[in-house]
Each structure stands twice: as C-alpha cells, then as structure tokens.
Amino acid sequence: xxxxxxxxxxxxxxxxxxxxxxxxxxxxxxxxxxxxxxxxxxxxxxxxxxxxxxxxxxxxxxxxxxxxxxxxxxxxxxxxxxxxxxxxxxxxxxxxxxxxxxxxxxxxxxxxxxxxxxxxxxxxxxxxxxxxxxxxxxxxxxxxxxxxxxxxxxxxxxxxxxxxxxxxxxxxxxxxxxxxxxxxxxxxxxxxxxxxxxxxxxxxxxxxxxxxxxxxxxxxxxxx
Length: 224
Description:
Layout lengths: L2 H13 L3 E2 L3 H5 L9 H6 L5 E5 L5 H9 L4 E6 L2 H13 L5 E5 L5 H4 L5 E7 L17 H10 E11 L2 H14 L2 E6 L10 H4 L4 H8 L5 E6 L2
Parallel strand pairs: 1-4, 2-3, 2-5, 3-4, 5-6
Antiparallel strand pairs: 6-8, 7-8
C-alpha cells in the first residue's frame, strides 16, 4: 500500500464514528474514558462484548457483527490503515454493533475493565516461530493473564489459525497450565460438527489458505 493511500485512510479513520484511537499514554498513564464504559458510551446497550485481536482488515469482526446483531464486536489492531476497510464497510452498511480500536494488544487490559468482555477471537496471528520471540506470541502466559483480567469468569477465547505450530504450542500450554479446552480441531473444514461461527465466516487470507488446501485449526478454551 502506497504512503499516500495510507495517509488518506488514516485521515478518513479520524472521521469515522466507529473508530477509537487513543494515544499510548492516554491508555497507560491515565484512566481511559471508555474503560468499563464500552456498553454505555459506544454501543448504548447491555449486549455481550466480543473482541477480535489483531483484526487486520476487520472483515471477521464485521461478518460476526452482521451474523450476531445481539452482540457487540470490537476489532483491535495497531495498523489503522488495515482496519479502515472494516470500519468503512460497517458505516456504509449501517452495522451499529461493531467498532474498531487502534491499540497494541499488550495494552488490552488498559482499554477494557475487569469482566467487561464476554468472548475473545484471535484470528490468524503471527505464530512467532523463532524461540526468542515467544514474548510476542498471542497465547503465551502473559497474554492469557491479560485476557483473564478483562474476561468475565465464564468468558471464552477462540483461536483460529493456519499454523499447526501455533495450534500445538497453545494446546500444550493450555493443558500444562490446567486451563479448560472446550473444543479443539486441527482441520475444522474437514471435520463434521465444527462450530458454525468458525466455518461460516472466513477472512480474505483464510479463503486463500483453503484454496491451497491448508488446514485451518481451531481451539475454544476457558482460562482457569
């Protein structure tokens, strides 16, 4: 994407009513005004809140919002020029139950209050295969403790990935730490009875992976 295109998208994001872009210091050094107030201020209802972490172009968040109008969705990514597409689609199609937050995933517990979130989706994260980069792996112990802080006690996490490595790493970590694995499958499109919200919604890249016959893995779990 050219720099002119990026700048245009950043500028347009600033005009979108469904995009929130707090500065880092606003999250870390101050009490973020939306923390604990997403239902009241953003969505103006008491429906469950579902996050998509590393939402990319935002198409998964938008598709889930269309499919589940009685839930509120927040797509989170540090790259605003990417989720511009999802935010714009949501405005053009008048989808009120989806918003986008530009922030680093490691600051998630500064943006949402304890027990404010009902469910989390992690869709096709970078598996960070190099050993020294495990601190950036989005299902590592540090990230799981952040998710636990913002999730309701009965809240669930969904990991959908084309990476067998990420799937295996996460399953091993969950079992080792005594977390509750509700469902796990290393090829959801070939398995009968896979959860509908896993197979009914596909990202752009996921469609490409499927064309290449790449298996899509999935885990649904609770943090104990």
